[in-house]
Amino acid sequence: MADACARSSRPRADVRLQPITKTVPANILRFAHAAGVTSFGENKIQEAAGKRDALSDLPIRWSIVGHLQTNKAANAARFADEFHALDSMRLADALNARLARDGRTLDVYVQVNTSDEDTKFGLHPDALLPFIDTLPRFERLRPRGLMTLAAFSDDMVRVRTCFRLLRRLRDEAARRDSRIAELSMGMSGDFEMAIEEGADVVRVGQAIFGRRPTPDSHYWPGLVGA
């Protein structure tokens, strides 16, 4: 991360590392917390809720980074500190209603499908600005920026194009809503490139905790055999 920041003339402090802990057992996360990791990112809400209960004695910030079904929004709203995959008004409404009931707020990143892949969740780029215009009605949601999953490809030009598109969309969205300021993009295989293209948050799992026991297709449907 420091090298990527140096290459792009950015202060290292400008980029936040969000460790992704999906499939990592709660007992291992205790060691991670003891080593200084205080924010854990989870893809599946059931797994996150179980770990949250198991680690309730620790001061942990929980980030939900994967697609969330509307019928599970209430569970996420109960304890998540931030959500990186907001992609519909229906989900925004469900989250906002539960947050209002609990007297909580939630930091959110709007997910955009920048790779034009049918297997990816997220708003189509053309749908982003109309969606941004609806966000003020959800008073319990605190928009922070945009999020994307770049193309799963060895073609680094294609990957970089996804990051550049998200940055351009962020600039356009910020003119509609100044709260849309950050870019959540980049994972273990491409976070350096994401930083070079302006990432404010990088979501890194395997580069920290090692290879997951389940294939990527378990968490990112459509990646058969990944």
From TrEMBL:
<feature type="modified residue" description="N6-(pyridoxal phosphate)lysine">
    <location>
        <position position="22"/>
    </location>
</feature>
<feature type="domain" description="Alanine racemase N-terminal">
    <location>
        <begin position="27"/>
        <end position="213"/>
    </location>
</feature>
<comment type="similarity">
    <text>Belongs to the pyridoxal phosphate-binding protein YggS/PROSC family.</text>
</comment>
<dbReference type="InterPro" id="IPR001608">
    <property type="entry name" value="Ala_racemase_N"/>
</dbReference>
<comment type="function">
    <text>Pyridoxal 5'-phosphate (PLP)-binding protein, which is involved in PLP homeostasis.</text>
</comment>
<dbReference type="InterPro" id="IPR029066">
    <property type="entry name" value="PLP-binding_barrel"/>
</dbReference>
<dbReference type="Pfam" id="PF01168">
    <property type="entry name" value="Ala_racemase_N"/>
</dbReference>
<dbReference type="InterPro" id="IPR011078">
    <property type="entry name" value="PyrdxlP_homeostasis"/>
</dbReference>
<keyword id="KW-0663">Pyridoxal phosphate</keyword>
<protein>
    <recommendedName>
        <fullName>Pyridoxal phosphate homeostasis protein</fullName>
    </recommendedName>
</protein>
